[in-house]
Amino acid sequence: MFVLKNRSSISHIARLQSPKFRQTGSNCTLSFWYYNYGQSVGAAEMQLFVDGLKQHTVLWRAYYNEGNQWLKAVIQLGRLPYPFQLSLDKISLGFYDGISAIDDIAFENCALPPPALRCESPNRFWCRDTKACIDSLLVCDLVDDCGDGSDEDNCNPDLQCNFENGLCNWEQDIWDDFDWIRIQGPTPTVNTGPLKDHTTGTVRGHYLYMESSEPHLFQDKAILLSPLFNPSGNGTCIFRFHYHMFGKQVYKLSVFQRTVSNTKGWLLWYKFGNQGNRWIRQTLFISSSKPFQILVKGTVGDGFTGDIALDDMSFLGCTLYSGNLPTVSTTTSGTSVPATVPMNNCTEKEFVCRASGHCIQMIQKCDFRPDCSDKSDESTCAMEFCDFEDKTQCGWYQPASEHKSGNYSIHTTNIFKWELGRGANLYPGQEKHCPLTDHTTFTEEGWYLFADSSNGEFGHIADITTPVISLTGPKCKILFWNHMNGSTIGSLEVLCKTSNKTSKLWTQSGSQGPQWNRAEVFLGIHSNFQVVFRAKRGVSYMGDVAVDDITFENCFPLVIPGRPCTSDEFTCANKHCIPKDNLCDFVNDCADNSDESPTI
Question: Would you tell me which CATH number, out of the four given (2.60.120.200, 3.20.20.480, 3.40.50.1000, 3.40.50.1950), belongs to the domain 11-108?
């Protein structure tokens, strides 16, 4: 189907309408291929009209010329319990010159779950009227998965929030940088954020979002606090929520758990970067021997197309706690690690947790996943994120530097090496080849790491390296920002070093301009290795190399869960659980390649 111009006017619309549909299931998606090419081809828009709702909902937009190519659009419809109709509008203002076409329209997973003759598994729920047998994790999650609403009957409203009537019993943190915003419809900035909420799938519904535009800056944080919960005992408290992370400059969403009120707690889950224009469900299994609280933190990225949204947050198997969490004195560190090794029965191949004397495998030390209650197994390791603002190098260190002349080994302070720096400390003229502001705070007071080319000679090398990392997962990658400006810039390399081999993962040479540039380096599965940043000096002092905001993303190794994989997960051959969305995506998510098997 294509658009043919047959008249001329200031503004005209070509409209293609669907039949009327009665309802959809909770996993329904619509896909089609579209072509929008030409100098004055105009925009296209897919709209949703629901019976009983006066205002239509925009589901998808194409902005003007998108090249001489067919592109695929995937629209998340979700559960729509009322009759509805779709309309594809082709909009042109003034002169129309181009071709617009649509083909291969498909609805997927739009039927309600089929009825079952029996539903006897303890991990399943039998729907009252439709007789569907669904996963028990879908019960009381603010989504009508049954199609008759029975999976959402008799739920405790204090354990659910769809934000239709406010924040429920969630609260904004008063110690963060700004607040989450409750909104209907699209966020104010195009090409980021949702067009609709998750609960209703229309502009009528509400959700929370984090605005990434000015005046908010990179790394600004908005934190949402849950109510307090009783210890989970022998059971497990399950937290379900839906998140939306769409935009080129989306940064980070993370979930923490705490048992002390004036701490940020420990990390349960996080996600980096653009995840597409869709709502994604996340399920977390929480255990605690003490009363606890959940913190949901959104972090601003490096620009205005970085909005993050939340909706339909619910708990299952949890009970509310009526007291208050204790506080820890701010005069002493609540996470300090004892210097001496406690009494233990650990072998030489095991690591001793400093607070408890508990034994863990040595491979669990320095793997980005705290296995000791005091996190002592990660205390002397590479940090997951480093912005250098505390004036430390976050565990990165420089091997002993040695420059040789003749038969003598000369140790000198005037050598090419990495050091902490900031714009406020530069001498006049140095800003031409060294950053005037850091990347974290964008101020002259902010710190970064740089290799000072006023020392050393042409071709000299400066290495800075992590402590040994014992094991990483299949999706591990390094994100960092680099600054390479000057007439005689040498090069910057990222290396992977093991006991007997050093391999180059990434390299950049020459001047890259007077700005911070983002770099992303894939690591994947490695064991007992170090990451090295190597700067090579150019022919003169006009060429400092700097790095800032180094992040190890998704680097924790896979762990076999103490539970069966859910219906939304794939069971790997090695018994790990991964989201089904990760199947057949050319990435070894399972760490044994079973998720990429042709027999799936």
Answer: 2.60.120.200
Query: What number does CATH give the domain 560-599?
Result: 4.10.400.10
CA 166, CA 157: separation in Å to the nearest integer?
13
pLDDT tens-digit series, residues 283-328: 999 988 899 999 999 999 888 999 999 999 999 999 999 999 988 7
pLDDT by 10-residue block (mean), the chain, 600 residues: 58 84 95 86 88 93 85 94 93 69 93 92 92 94 95 95 96 93 94 95 96 89 96 87 94 92 86 92 92 95 92 96 81 46 77 84 85 84 89 86 38 74 82 89 91 87 92 90 92 92 93 92 90 92 90 84 80 84 82 83
- Token duo for residue 438: 């850091």
Distance of CA 436 to the CA centre of its chain: 29
- Cα gap 243→250, rounded to integer Å: 12
Please list, in sequence order, all residues whose beta carbon lies within 8 angstroms of the beta carbon of residue 95, skipping any fewer than 6 positions away: 8, 40
423 phi, psi to nearest 5 deg: -60, -35
Q: CA–CA distance from 528 to each of 362, 366, 496 (Å)?
A: 11, 9, 10
Answer whether 1's CB lies under 8 Å from 102's CB: yes
**SS3 per-residue string spanning 370-394:** CCCCCCHHHCCCCCCEECCCCCCCC
| Residue among 202, 200, 25, 27 at smallest CA distance from 127 | 25
Q: What is the pLDDT of residue 4?
A: 61
Euclidean distance between CA atoms 245 and 479, whole angstroms:
18
Backbone CA torsion sign across 523, 529, 530, 535: negative
Q: Cα–Cα distance between 338 and 355 in angstroms, integer?
A: 6
Task: Look up tokens 């439709």; give the residue.
Answer: 130
Q: What's the CATH code, domain 157-316?
A: 2.60.120.200
Cα–Cα distance, 407 to 36 (Å, whole number): 70
Place of tokens 């929030």: 161
Question: Cis peptide leading into 598, omega within 30 of 0?
Answer: no
State the fold for domain 382-401+412-553.
Jelly Rolls (2.60.120)
Rounded CA-CA distance 313/162 in Å is: 6
Question: Which amino acid would we find at residue 97?
Answer: D
Same fold, 157-316 and 560-599: no
Q: Contact, 76 vs 31, CB < 8 A?
A: no
**What's the 3-state SS for 430-471?**
HHHCCCCCCCCCCCCCCEEEEECCCCCCCCCEEEEECCCEEE
Report the alpha-carbon angle 100-106-108, nearest 5.
Answer: 145
Domain boundaries, the chain: 11-108, 157-316, 382-401+412-553, 560-599
What does the alpha-carbon distance between residue 137 and residue 68 come to, in Å, rounded to a whole number?
45
